[in-house]
Amino acid sequence: MIITIADGAGGAAKSILADNLAALRTLAGHKVILLDNDPQLASLKWSCERRNNGHTVPITARKISGKGLQPELENLRCHYQDIVIDSASRDCMGSRSALLAAHVAVIAVDLDQLDQLHEEELLQRVEKACAFNPGLRIMVVMSSVHIQPSPEKIALVRNFSQKFKSAQLFARVIHSGYALQLAYRDGLSISEYLPADHLAVAGMQELFGAVFAAH
């Protein structure tokens, strides 16, 4: 199964979702590779930090270019059960190829950075991918450092998600508070970080179940 994490704003939310989903799937016993197509290489650095800290369950991660993504995916499918792609935020060969190859596209929206969200560009990018990949399942996922985000911001994202054809708005807002940031810094998933942020753990576990439903 190929999961592509995309956004239209940049920032850490996209990479945090990609890394946590890859970690949870690996901890569930699946053979997973995390591909980093973002110029910031945040997911690759996260994986290296995880390895350097001596965690017993490493996450296999690799940098991949836009030009090499499609042919490399054909090879990787023979060796891994699941592929999670942290795609570039901008419209480019890599971000387009990642959506074209995906079974599920997770659109990460940081409620605290809505002013940086390039809605029309992201919408066009996803719609073009759907034209060639009609089986693509789209999930719009919100995150916020606030336990109770502004209802007005949630309404804006709800309206945005309705512009996609057959997109699912994940109802629960992922709590991206201090614990999630520290876990990300240390190469951990939020489920591995102590002291536990039960709100963030529950949200990420629920998202994990929704993304990998029936797989």
From TrEMBL:
It comes from the Bacteria. SUPFAM superfamilies: P-loop containing nucleoside triphosphate hydrolases. Residues 3-110 form the CobQ/CobB/MinD/ParA nucleotide binding domain. Transmembrane segments: none annotated. CDD domains: ParAB_family. InterPro entries: CobQ/CobB/MinD/ParA_Nub-bd_dom, DNA_Partitioning_ATPase, P-loop_NTPase. Coiled coil: none annotated. It holds the Pfam family CbiA. PANTHER family: COBQ_COBB_MIND_PARA NUCLEOTIDE BINDING DOMAIN-CONTAINING PROTEIN, P-LOOP CONTAINING NUCLEOSIDE TRIPHOSPHATE HYDROLASE. This is CobQ/CobB/MinD/ParA nucleotide binding domain-containing protein. It comes from Undibacterium hunanense.
